[in-house]
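Lecture notes, part 5. Sequence design as translation. It can be helpful to think of inverse folding as translation between two languages: the language of shapes and the language of residues. The source text, in structure tokens, appears below.
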């Protein structure tokens, strides 16, 4: 994963950047992980389902060890490399 110096400078200036396509190969994998965790939540799941039928809020804490898709993303994607690319430099001057 090559992140240009321009992107790093933009991050330092604005505090946020868009890295389009960086995780494109992981979208389907992670979506399957979301389906799995929502189908089989852990004991830490604490969701809110409004009585009025509006959108529910689902949360389930720390599932990467038990959901293979999440674990694979952590250990096999370029996420660590992307983070390391700027971690030695201050984001805000």
């Amino acid at each position: 994963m090559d992140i240009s110096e321009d992107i790093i400078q933009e991050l330092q200036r604005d505090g946020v950047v868009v890295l389009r396509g960086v995780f494109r190969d992981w979208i389907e994998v992670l979506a399957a992980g979301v389906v799995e965790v929502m189908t089989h939540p852990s004991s830490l799941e604490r969701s809110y389902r409004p009585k009025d039928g509006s959108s529910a809020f689902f949360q389930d804490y720390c599932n990467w060890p038990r959901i293979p898709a999440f674990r694979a993303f952590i250990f096999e994607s370029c996420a660590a490399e992307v983070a390391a690319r700027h971690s030695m430099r201050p984001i805000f001057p």
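The translated text above is only one of many valid answers, since several sequences can fold into similar shapes. The chain has a mean pLDDT of 87.
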